[in-house]
UniProtKB/TrEMBL annotation, chain A:
Transmembrane segments: 12-35, 81-103, 115-142, 148-168, 189-214, 250-268
Phylogenetic classification of the source organism: Bacteria, Bacillati, Actinomycetota, Actinomycetes, Micrococcales
SUPFAM superfamilies, per database record: MetI-like
Presence of keyword Protein transport: no
Pfam families named among the record's database cross-references: BPD_transp_1
Topology relative to the membrane: Multi-pass membrane protein
UniProt-recorded name of the protein: Carbohydrate ABC transporter membrane protein 2, CUT1 family
Species assigned in the record: Herbiconiux ginsengi
Keyword field: Cell membrane, Membrane, Transmembrane, Transmembrane helix, Transport
Record-stated family: Belongs to the binding-protein-dependent transport system permease family.
From TrEMBL, chain B:
Record key words, sorted: Cell membrane, Membrane, Transmembrane, Transmembrane helix, Transport
InterPro entries assigned to the protein according to its UniProt record, in alphabetical order: MetI-like, MetI-like_sf
Topology of the protein relative to the lipid bilayer: Multi-pass membrane protein
Protein name per Swiss-Prot or TrEMBL: Carbohydrate ABC transporter membrane protein 1, CUT1 family
GO cellular component, one term: plasma membrane
Spans through the membrane: 26-52, 82-108, 120-143, 172-195, 278-300
Gene3D superfamilies registered for this protein in UniProt: MetI-like (1.10.3720.10)
Biological processes per GO annotation: transmembrane transport
SUPFAM superfamilies from the UniProt entry: MetI-like
Length: 283, 307
């Protein structure tokens, strides 16, 4: 056998090996999600049918309908959207201002603030929870939107500032410097010049912020009490707490609760990969 | 983009470092400084204060007890169990995240397949990362239920038989929640390592080939040393975050059965919100904070060294 054909054969073997490995990995990663999707279209009696079937015989949107027509469950989604959108807008506003200062100015205390912002990301949520509970009750924010919105910003703000500063650093200073030289204030330079060209960066920071707020569980569990203030992750757990498990509804609710993040991911995949790779996002 | 450039990115580019001083930047920092003070510094001071007191939150006049709470928490056998479980869960998860993440990243980085095929697999591989802990918890409770599909598959392939109680058997529960966490968390490693692999200069491999290195030798003499800084960053971040995991445990086993999956986070939560022992919970929370801060110091120093 010549070296050429031997190399080709080795290459083919390696290719087959890699494909087999990739398919096995894809089953590990994808099968549970496929099962969630499949279960959401079953009737509840069919969930534990033996033998289990991936594709149901009587495919039904019933579980989705019963969630979307139940005002209590719809309210979970409304709450999640209100909180996540408010957190996103507030975080962006505060982070853009801070990032402008970090990117364009030198000032006393910058290094200390920098260290604090970086280390905030390592503080365990459970440590903050107990004083937050005390504070939120004292301030009358227990079981309210502002209580959740404010506390979520402790997770979203640090990395939003870090990512935003990084983005501003890539934009030429001459642009906003020129506006300032013409006598306009820093505010004009930031909001009228820098922000419009920073839209791609702002969008990716905004998506991460929304995701973190949408997925948050511990604070939502502890700082809200009544059903009308609960968010989607708590709503899913509440479905589990009922006497008879409606597994098809639980899975449908899980799918519906994941849709906003999945859509954002599919549309902005490049930003996700970049941000994940930079290690600045919580898993 | 390589792994976290946290420290570097907050500095303005060097040549402007003496550009401007004055009060102006403080106006832009003010909202951040206020929020960080209210959401971070005040609460941490409060929780440390609580940990030295008794009758906090539930009573208007707490009394100072100094280290009594620490003695009680550190002497509690359930706390010891929680420490051991947290270590097992965290080390098991992080090690598996690294191995799986690296294996998947290397397969996705292969030259043997087309771009499109790789993008397709990459999308599937990242999926578990897109679901929130609540969804992951209920999904695996369905999959791992005694009558569930996992038992069916294991039974029909002859690996295990019968209705295994993955989450309620004391011998299996810790392994099961660790497995779920492995499934949920490896994409975080995979993406960073994939970016790292794509950044390794090709001539390093060519030089190794010229030197007669085989695939395994190249892996240990080129790939691993080149990825080392990313791997260390990821390991530290994952250790910090996995040791703080709450939601997944809370919604799968709640720390049970009989404390076999009790973590420091669930232990602390129960002290506060099931037993209303806020002072003891604060003590436990401060201990958890100290653990995270030790890891954070290593992380920040590692980042500095990389800059």
């Amino acid at each position: 056998m010549t070296t050429m054909t031997k190399r080709n054969r080795n290459r083919l073997l390696m290719k087959v090996g890699v494909i087999l490995g990739l398919v096995a990995g894809a089953m590990f990663a994808g099968f549970p999600i496929l099962w969630m999707l499949s279960s959401s279209f079953k009737s509840n009696g069919e969930i534990f049918e033996f033998p289990p079937r991936l594709v149901t015989e009587d495919f039904s949107f019933g579980a989705y309908l019963s969630i979307l027509t139940d005002p209590t469950k719809v309210r979970f989604f409304v709450n999640s959207y209100v909180v996540a959108i408010a957190v996103t807008l507030l975080t962006l506003f505060v982070a853009i201002m801070a990032a402008y200062a970090f990117s364009r100015f030198e000032f006393r205390g910058k290094r200390i603030i920098n260290v604090v912002i970086v280390s905030v990301q390592a503080v365990p949520p459970i440590t903050l929870l107990i004083p937050y509970f005390g504070l939120v009750v004292v301030l009358g924010l227990y079981n309210t939107y502002p209580g959740l919105i404010l506390t979520y910003m402790v997770f979203t703000l640090p990395y939003a500032i870090i990512m935003m500063t990084g983005y501003f650093n890539t934009l030429p200073r001459e642009l906003d410097e020129a506006v300032r030289m013409d006598g306009a204030g820093s505010m004009t330079a930031l909001w009228k010049v820098l922000v419009p060209i920073a839209v791609p960066g702002i969008v990716s920071v905004g998506i991460y912020t929304f995701m973190i707020a949408w997925n948050e569980y511990l604070f939502a569990l502890t700082l809200t009490k009544t059903e009308d203030m609960r968010t989607v992750p708590i709503g899913i757990q509440l479905l589990m707490g009922q006497h008879s498990y409606q597994w098809n509804e639980i899975m449908a609710m899980s799918i519906l609760g994941s849709v906003p993040v999945l859509i954002l991911f599919l549309f902005f995949q490049r930003y996700f990969m970049g941000g994940l790779a930079s290690g600045s996002v919580k898993s | 983009m390589t792994s976290s450039s946290v420290d570097r990115t907050l500095r303005a580019p060097g040549r402007f470092s003496k550009a401007r001083r004055g009060s102006e930047p403080y106006a832009f920092i003010l909202p951040t400084a206020l929020l960080i003070t209210v959401l971070m510094i005040v609460p941490i001071v409060m929780v440390i204060g609580y940990s030295f007191s008794d009758n906090v939150i539930t009573n208007k006049h707490p009394e100072l007890v100094w280290l009594a709470n620490y003695a009680e928490v550190l002497g509690d056998p359930v706390f010891h169990t929680a420490v051991i479980n947290t270590v097992v869960f965290t080390v098991g998860s992080v090690a598996a995240h690294l191995v799986l993440g690296l294996a998947f990243a290397m397969m996705l980085n292969t030259q043997l397949l087309s771009r499109f095929t790789k993008a397709l697999f990459r999308t599937v591989y990242i999926l578990p990362w897109l679901f929130t802990a609540a969804v992951i918890a209920v999904l695996w409770r369905l999959l791992l239920s005694p009558n569930g599909v996992v038992n069916y598959l294991l039974d029909s392939t002859g690996i295990a038989s019968g209705q295994v109680e993955w989450l309620s058997n004391p011998d299996l529960a810790l392994g099961s929640v660790t497995f779920i966490n492995i499934w949920a968390g490896y994409p975080f490693f995979m993406i960073s390592l994939l970016a790292g692999l794509q950044g390794i200069p090709h001539d390093l491999y060519e030089a190794a080939t010229v030197d007669g290195a085989n695939g395994i030798q190249k892996f240990f003499s080129v790939t691993i040393p080149q990825l080392r800084p990313i791997i260390i960053s990821m390991l530290l971040l994952d250790l910090i975050w996995t040791s703080q995991q709450f939601a997944l445990i809370w919604m799968t086993t709640g720390g049970g059965p009989i404390n076999v999956t009790e973590m420091l986070s669930t232990y602390t939560y129960k002290l506060a919100f099931s037993r209303y022992e806020f002072a003891l919970a604060s003590t436990s929370a401060v201990l958890v904070l100290a653990l995270s801060m030790v890891l954070a110091v290593f992380y920040v120093r590692h980042q500095r060294a990389r800059d």
